Amino acid sequence: MYAIVDIETTGGHASANGITEIAICIHNGKKVIERYSTLVNPGREIPIYISALTGITNEMVQDAPPFEDVAHDVYHLLNNKIFVAHNVNFDHSFVRYHLAAAGYELQCNKLCTVRLGRKIIPGLPSYSLGKLCRHLNINNESRHRAAGDAEATAQLFTMLLQSDKGNHISQALKQNSKEQVLPANLPKQDVESLPQTPGVYYFHDEKGKVIYVGKAKNLKKRVCSHFTGNNPGPQRQEFLRNICRISYEPCGTELVAFVLEAVEIKRLWPKYNRSLKRFEHAYSLYAFEDQRGYLRLAIDKHRKMTGAIYSCNTLFEGRSILLKLIETFGLCPKLCFIQSNNAACTGINTGNCACEGHEDMETYNTRVSLAINELNKALPTFAIRDAGRTDDEHSCLLIEKGKFYGMGYISHYYNAENLDQLKTCLTAYPGNDYIRNMVDSYAVKYPDRKMIFA
To answer: What Gene Ontology terms for biological process does this UniProt record contain (predicted)?
Structure first.
């Protein structure tokens, strides 16, 4: 037995909205044998645009029963039935949420007439209920009202049952079929084709635009985890409705997937990604020449395209590096902006310091240049050589002078001793402290996979 359900609501997600109308058609596999319909008082105002769409006003539901008063009837109509709806996850999430609030736990199989329509009647430009009804000559005089849409969905379902030569309905109802938990607009094949390997996956909307990027140790398992659970929140419900296609990029290791995800989020700026979008270097070490010709070092907020010597994420780290250079090379704390008061210079050359005009420009600038060169030499240059996408290749990530250079894949037999030659095999990517720290941590954990370059 099937319970074909349609609801009207005050908004798009169950946790903060109420049901204003519910209709249920009990279908025996051949025809509708019982009908139920009622207005419901949602316990909140119905937005004007919702009233304009459905025709249901606050006055109409003022004396209607609240959902908890009809929950008993709704539960017993749905219990032990197969829950059928057009975009079933929306209706099911609302009904299940509000039944639970009334003390009833709904557990039943689901069928989505959007998904079934795509399989049984392929090739149509749209699978919205209205356009399907027009295509199949199903009359619906009460569009956007629960009873009218439930009756139209029931007629559509009857046609799908009669036209299901490929047994798609029975396949969807098998115990091991996870199809009904998938977003209504996502082809099952997109999920079935995912490998169980590390990689980066992309969710696309109906126009093909990437709306979410994620990384995975196991692509298929991770992607499927997005569609489990019953979170009725607005972001999740909108997110699932907008997923229409999945693409992916296999990666040799989870580390490569982590790095590629960070790069792709910055490149594509997907709508539903929150983390990593705004990760930037916070501070950088800069060198510049003042009006007198003296080279000066300074820690300042990071600015793109400004030729920083070194970038870091905290002011403390930047100042610590600069203080070490001042101590080691006898630099002036005033010319390095460490000492900013008008008191006498506290550097080791007090009384004979460049800031006081006693040390000539060439001598002082030589020490600053030595400090910069020493810092560059101290910054590590190494590569991580690890598993590839196939048995005959290796993945490779390069850190050059403390900065992430890029990554790629090299032959299993490739001799990567020459840094310049290795760089020709890799793709350069923009880096940041997040990526650098990931690679650094991985190198500490797996020192046998680290290649050090002089």
So the answer is: DNA replication proofreading; nucleotide-excision repair
